Amino acid sequence: xxxxxxxxxxxxxxxxxxxxxxxxxxxxxxxxxxxxxxxxxxxxxxxxxxxxxxxxxxxxxxxxxxxxxxxxxxxxxxxxxxxxxxxxxxxxxxxxxxxxxxxxxxxxxxxxxxxxxxxxxxxxxxxxxxxxxxxxxxxxxxxxxxxxxxxxxxxxxxxxxxxxxxxxxxxxxxxxxxxxxxxxxxxxxxxxxxxxxxxxxxxxxxxxxxxxxxxxxxxxxxxxxxxxxxxxxxxxxxxxxxxxxxxxxxxxxxxxxxxxxxxxxxxxxxxxxxxxxxxxxxxxxxxxxxxxxxxxxxxxxxxxxxxxxxxxxxxxxxxxxxxxxxxxxxxxxxxxxxxxxxxxxxxxxxxxxxxxxxxxxxxxxxxxxxxxxxxxxxxxxxxxxxxxxxxxxxxxxxxxxxxxxxxxxxxxxxxxxxxxxxxxxxxxxxxxxxxxxxxxxxxxxxxxxxxxxxxxxxxxxxxxxxxx
Length: 468
Known about the structure:
two-stranded antiparallel ribbon
């Protein structure tokens, strides 16, 4: 019976064994096996296997609707196309050439191009996110066999007509048969796609064991070994032939994984560890924002609550003391608000508080602070203001708050009694400043309401607002 430990050991052997074979071939078998006919038949056979894996992947997608499997199907259909043309342009075949090239270098360049392109195409399709169109049903309805057939025709037709004028293809080999920069970039990009995807599948397998995922890890590692060996070996050498075998083995392993998912109860299941971490991190940030909102802000009006206002003001007092600056603390208590609640109900009263809060915010500066500390009581922190600016802000607040406000067809009229204390004239602590502004507010209440008083003036504003 295949236990998880045995599966891991077998997987490791499949991945590592080619490295030892490569070392053996590199040290003891250095002769060239130049056989274009063998290469042609071998690659045609490999292309047929690739197309079969692509069709098997499509059947698995039809059964379980896993988006990633459809991309893999596209990947192997593309491998079948590009690898077939890789065979068709094999140099030095004895039974003739299918396409004409201006010279041998152009032939070899196209030959290498299609080999590299087949691996790049598969790596790209394996790299595509598992759920890119998870909620896009208008796109996913095109995930069908007709699309695969059309893709097969388009890729085959494009390459065929391109080979009629092969000079349009990018050059993958220099005159000395070394790789061009584009060929090197293609191989490196292939390795990057494969490596990133291998790590993603590795973390998925570590989190939740799945045979199909394991087959993908092994297959991707084998393709990476293939690309590396092709990068460092010469055409027709023993190592070069080894790379062909590894490439064929890679998609046989992936195909077996797809078939396992198709026939067994344990289906392909990708667990996106990094994605889950990002989602949990984002969720945690959102929760922290909500907790911060609940802890520091009034749920009804969105203004700061009493605790947050006091904490922030205490910090600002330290800053103002060091910088030797002054500020004002304004206590606002609405006049006749209880009458609105009793007459029209608390729902209208709540809407009125929201409107009043917005009016207050629109009057003060962006770096000032407003808080709702009780039912109809507000505190304002006015930074770096002169006595003239305090008068102007107070008058503006009285003017805006005494405007009639219509809520659900009900005309609401309130006023405001405002008491103002100045730092450091009326106190050096938040408790002293609130106490003094509260005292000034009650004096306004006693003297007729709907007015404001700056405590240090010890007298009512000579130009009061509208009296209700």
